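Question (not urgent): is this output format expected?
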Amino acid sequence: MTQEFEFERPITELEKRLKDLQTLSEEGNIDLSREITAIADKIEAMKAEVFRNLEPWQITQVARHIQRTSTLDYVKLIFGEDNFVELHGDRLFGEDTSIITGFADLGERPVALIGHQKGHDTEENIFRNFGMPHPEGYRKSMRIMKMAEKFGRPIIVFIDTPGAFPGIGAEERGQSEAIARSIMTMSRVRVPVMCFVIGEGGSGGALAIGIGDRVYMLEYSVYSVISAEGCAAILWKDSSKAKEAATSLKMRAQDLLQLGVIDGIIPEPLGGVHRNPEMVARLIKKMILSELPKLCSLSPDELVSRRYSKFRQLGAYKIEEDFEKDA
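Got this back:
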């Protein structure tokens, strides 16, 4: 399945033209190298112009791309397809396929893995509930967190969800309690935690597994307290104002790094990670290998204390002395 955005259309048309020329050159045994090179250069220049000046709403669209690299894709690229043991079920109600959990080895270091999982087509998205977890998904995650703590394994998290599933059944089974307990469990777990926002980081559905010692975002991912459409529906009673809401919410990686919400940005190829997932997987792996030894050198008490302080400082503000006197 392919997906094309309005702002990508001129690039896509040139790419189709380039493909036609390459086919004509090969099948007709015609030397079109000069024309092919010219169009290829124009495509790269156009990509640079478009994707280095994306608006927040356009970045949101890229973050939701149906072909965007998913948690299972990264597991295969970073850890190896045969090096991941997936664990299922929350031992209370059932299995939630929108969250992947398990264990893998990163070199000689065993780690625990948790991540939201979307699909790359309609059938898979339905099976994965479009990456929107039920309570049992978060309870499964907590089970893995506690196992990781018991066996001293660092936790690697991949975040990509529009938000927790808002259905009646999920609410009846304690959705809000599961999210709150997951945040509490993650804030206290006595092993290193590294989180990567790889697509959408939506609301409490993302934050439930986002309490990390290090939190990183991919360049064209978004992270927010609510979706742009949801924010527009609440503030303007009009979901079509999502573009304005996306700008106001400061959802982009650059905005969140400046605000101190995240610790770093992982670059993506022009056009998005789906155009070169191997490159981004290498960068994520490099970041894990660089930062994890530093975190592992800290004592469990120090890890928990620093993590607590990190999130307590988010949204902190200072009241100037002159303002206090005037008040």
